Amino acid sequence: MDSVAEFFGGDQAEDRRRGSDLRYDMQIKLEEAAFGAGKEIEIAKLDTCEKCRGSGAEPGSRTITCSTCGGRGQVISSRGFFHVSQTCPRCRGAGEVIEKPCQKCHGEGRLEKLSRVKLKIPAGIREGSRLRSLGNGEAGTRGGPPGDLYVVIHVREHKIFQREGDDLYCDVPIPFSVAALGGDIDVPTLEGKGHLKVSTGTQSGQMFKLRGKGITNVNGRGRGDLFARLIVEVPSRLNAQQRRKLEEFAALCGDENTPLRKSFFERAKEFFT
Ligand SMILES: [Zn+2]
Ligand SMILES: [Zn+2]
Q1: Ligand 1 centre from 129 Cα, in Å?
Q2: Model pTM score
Q3: Taking CA 150 as the corner, what is the angle to CA 145 and CA 155, rounded to the nearest 5 degrees?
């Protein structure tokens, strides 16, 4: 026994392994990302066998000392001049074996099951964020510790709002008469109807900021804004009376009604000669 080589040292706990980490991709609505949400997901994963409570032993059966290695976890074999110490193939180094393996999980201590996992989505979470759910990965073998579950967040596209960081953007069409005359308009916000006062002569593309109507910062740094871009809509169809009135209006218009156009033609004069 003077030349024992430790070929397989250090894997005493091979039989009792930590479960794997799992990844789950989850789609959420923009509103859920903005305000946070409680979610429950169902995943198929290796979970603790409830019959043997993860031990892998048939209930009532004992763990007995491994007879192959006499409880040492190692066996010695001779190879020429050497005595080689190897991990015991029967108990895989544990030194003890289950007298009778659990019939339900065949001694693994875990089974493929559908499990429900509760998750708390924090307000302000961003696309691609990863949430770690401690201990909700695969169960370990024979009572080994469980892995973790990583949930990757995907925020669905919204039909009205586009998100940039913690700010929101949306296009709001307004009638050209309101743009010309000024007035109150309704603007959608994540919390319902908002209002904007537009002044006389508002132009298409003009951006209005609704302060604090964006998304709560996930790290607690305040709240973003909502930017409403006004799109002035020209009537696509006119009835006879509307046409007559608009023609009367056009006849009354001079350069002072269209200052942008006036300055444009001054700058572009040389291109028209
Ligand atoms: Zn079992
Ligand atoms: Zn053994």
Answers
A1: 36
A2: 0.75
A3: 165
